[in-house]
Structure formats: C-alpha cells, structure tokens
Hints:
By secondary structure, the protein is an alpha+beta fold.
Amino acid sequence: xxxxxxxxxxxxxxxxxxxxxxxxxxxxxxxxxxxxxxxxxxxxxxxxxxxxxxxxxxxxxxxxxxxxxxxxxxxxxxxxxxxxxxxxxxxxxxxxxxxxxxxxxxxxxxxxxxxxxxxxxxxxxxxxxxxxxxxxxxxxxxxxxxxxxxxxxxxxxxxxxxxxxxxxxxxxxxxxxxxxxxxxxxxxxxxxxxxxxxxxxxxxxxxxxxxxxxxxxxxxxxxxxxxxxxxxxxxxxxxxxxxxxxxxxxxxxxxxxxxxxxxxxxxxxxxxxxxxxxxxxxxxxxxxxxxxxxxxxxxxxxxxxxxxxxxxxxxxxxxxxxxxxxxxxxxxxxxxxxxxxxxxxxxxxxxxxxxxxxxxxxxxxxxxxxxxxxxxxxxxxxxxxxxxxxxxxxxxxxxxxxxxxxxxxxxxxxxxxxxxxxxxxxxxxxxxxxxxxxxxxxxxxxxxxxxxxxxxxxxxxxxxxxxxxxxxxxxxxxxxxxxxxxxxxxxxxxxxxxxxxxxxxxxxxxxxxxxxxxxxxxxxxxxxxxxxxxxxxxx
Length: 539
Ligand SMILES: Cc1cc2nc3c(=O)[nH]c(=O)nc-3n(C[C@H](O)[C@H](O)[C@H](O)COP(=O)(O)OP(=O)(O)OC[C@H]3O[C@@H](n4cnc5c(N)ncnc54)[C@H](O)[C@@H]3O)c2cc1C
C-alpha cells in the first residue's frame, strides 16, 4: 500500500486521478473489502476508497463470529443459515486463523429447552454439511461441570456443545484488502467520497477528499459500488437518489472483562431475560460479552455511546449462568457497533432479517445493503455480478480459492503456535495472539522487531512496523484499534504504549512533534470514551 509518507501519498493520489477504473468501491468495511478482492480476481480494474480507515465502521465492532446463527433458524431464515454455515468452512480454507472452529456451549435450564436446541443444532449441522468429527455433543452433571467449571450446573443442568467459527473482524477486512491489492486492485484509506460524477445522466466516477491533506480528487470509473454499510443512505443522497428501501441502524454493545474474573474455557451462548443471545467469548486474557440489539437514531454523535442500562443488561446473564456478580467496575472497556439492516414494516430490529440486497439506481449507482460479516464473499459476488453486467464486463466469477494473506498454511493453529515458541522466547499465549492476528505471516512480523514495547505487555515493535509497511496504518488509532486490537483486548496497555507507538510512527511517516502530541491526545480521548460509561455507572 503506497499511501504512507505524504510524498508517496500524493503520487498515489495522482495515480488514482490518472486512470479510468472499471469500478470504484465506496467503503472499506468487510463488504467493500470483499468486493475489492472479488473484482480484482476477476480481472476488473478496481479502486476502493475508505473515508476513515479499513474496518473503522461496523466491521471492527461485531461479535466476531462466522456463523449461521441458531436464532435465524428459529426465525425460519433457512437460506441465510445454510449459506452462512457453508461460508464459514470456505473462510476457514482461505484463512484458518481468521475462521477458527471453536466449541460453543449452549447451557439449558429445562429438558424442553435442551431438546429444542438439540434439534436445532442437528438441523444446523445438516444444512452446513458439518464433518462427523465436528458434530455436537451433549453434556450433563459431572461431565458438564468438568467441561466448563464456572457454569452453575444446578441452574443449567444440561448443555449441547457445537462448532462455531471465531474470527477477528478487522483483521479479516485487512486480509481481504491486501488480497485485493495483491490481485491488482487499489485501496486507499482516509479518502472520503464527497460526490458522485455523472456523464449524460450516468454515473462516471466520484469526487473525493483526502482527509489527511485536504486534497480534492476525482476518480473516474465505469461503475461505482456503494458499500458504505451504515452510511449507504448518505452515499445515495450524494447521487440525489433515495434508496428503494429504508435502512434501520441497530446498535450492538460489547463489554470486555479480564478472563480472571470469568475464567471460561469455551465460548458460551447465554440468553438475556428478553430471550436474546448474549455470547461470552474468551479471547486471550479477556472475555468479551455481547450483544444488545436496539434501533439507533444517529444524532449529533454518529457512533453510539454505551449506556448504563446496556451494561447492566449484558452483565445480568453472567450472574444467572455463572453465579459471578460483576459490576461495571470489573469491565476493562466496551465497544458499540451499528448493524446496517434493511427496514421491514412492523418488525423490531432483532426480528429483521440479516439478508442483503443489491440495488441499481436509474443513474447506475450500485448499492449493496444489509447482510452480515459471515456472508461477505457471497455479497461480494452478487455486487460484482451486478457491476459486471452493468458495464458489460464478460469475465467470470473467480474460483476465489487463493488463500488470504497469512492464511497459506496447512496444519492447525496449534502447529503454528508451536512453530513460533520453538524459534522465539515466548509462551503459548503470546504466540497464539500473534498467530490469530497474522497467521503464517507472524514470523515476518517478528523479524521486524520481536521486542515488547512495554515489559509484561503483549505488543511487539514489529507489529507497529508491519501495520505501517504492509497494512496501510496511518494513525495511532489504526494501529492500536484495528491492526493489533490492543485497544480492545489490552486497553490499559494501549494507553501506556501510545507515546512509543507515536514515536515509531512519527519516525516512519515524518510526523512533527505537534502531530505526535495530537495523535496521543486523540488516542487518549478514544480510550476514555470507550470507558466513559463504566466510570459514570460505577461512580
Ligand atoms: C454488535 C454487532 C455484532 C455483530 N456480530 C456479527 C457476527 O458475529 N457475525 C456476523 O457475521 N456479523 C455480525 N454483525 C454484522 C456485521 O458486523 C456487519 O454486517 C458488517 O460488519 C457490515 O460491514 P459493511 O462493510 O457493510 O459496513 P462497515 O463495516 O460499517 O463499513 C462501511 C465503511 O464505509 C465507509 N464510508 C462511509 N461513507 C463513506 C464515504 N462517503 N466515502 C468513503 N467511505 C465511506 C465507513 O467509514 C466504513 O468503514 C454484527 C454487527 C453488530 C453491530
């Protein structure tokens, strides 16, 4: 990604202006990233423009499951469930570290509920063609206690345990962006699309602004795909069109707590008092808990804040299932995302289908809306099919079986962990963290700098260098939130390494002292905003 130093960035912006692309993609979340990869693999010339950072929207704030969701099965959305269940296998083949099969336990309080889940899981496994070795099993009494010692087995005496796939959403986006670039596409972050160009009433490109330099550019293209997630309506309004269907933004909150406070060994599916799924997911030294689902009306704050009642809502099942009484003071941080859902009359946000749709305006602007992280490959195929038809491109769908960057390894994640611990002085936990982030590229990251930035921490100097050199990171936020996930899983460490990371980035990107200070202040403010609700409730 040639968008680092300002001189290189200027040249890259010149290059963007000097070509007529087959396609411009607006938005670098998972939807846009998948489209970039699919279009480039088909041989289309394609440029993706992202206003903030790759994955800065909802695609870094999900529950991070590549799943069909039993809930959708209960709602009768068989097609979504089948496709999702098959997709998780495909993503696992492309990047085993970004779709990691894990056991998910569903504890039940009554025999009826237990039977209901067993039947649902069996159907789910059949739809997803799950291998025999990966099929569910059921536990009761002592076996259940041994499997998950923290569970209150008196209140939840039976459980079914089945496979779901855990990803890292932002890392999946970055991997797809890099795959798109490797296949000949172009991707630029910090470029906001501000207008849609037309030639004789037909879309012919976009106007955009570099949010670093303020430079205005024009990028010409035969087709434009609007993949702006929660912002698709705003992008349509740039073309002075309204969408055929309205969007509903549904807010979802997650809490992060130290693993020591809830020492789960597996992912657990709990239910809130209003029968919504609340997942508790162990990840390294933390467990994250989520999510809520409520309609959100963007006001002055585009990105939603976490409310005290949402924290209480998520901690309630933790007390009921595990007998662990956590308060807001036990939480390390929070994150909140917005699901871009397609409005369905008379339905609450939790009842609305997660299906995706492609719309083409009279002027030829292609918009893709709705969907889930899990179905991103299929969404990309549908959007690129529509674009190829529109611009008369005859190429066929790509086989799409080239591994994503970091995904080119055989054997298990444990083998990769062993590989690292045999070569570097690190424990299994540190090696697992690196493999989950970088897959087979972890050794290359370590080669750039295996030293820790703070003693007792987890972030390595090489990760900062890698984020800048290979993954287009332009700010502290890009590195600490989306490339290394330090702000989510080690938020205290994120605060303590901010000045060191700013020094490293400043040296590489030519930042002034004032710019470094501004970056550190911005990072401090972001970390504080994530914990604001915890402080106010605890007080
Ligand atoms: C709480 C929560 C939990 C979820 N959990 C799961 C899960 O476990 N599994 C799953 O499969 N799905 C899950 N989802 C759904 C999934 O996260 C979303 O469907 C998906 O991330 C949406 O991706 P996107 O690319 O469409 O949108 P986004 O990720 O929001 O990307 C849109 C991008 O467009 C950019 N943009 C906007 N306007 C412009 C412009 N004018 N110019 C340039 N760029 C622009 C934005 O900056 C943004 O980066 C969850 C969602 C939420 C909210």
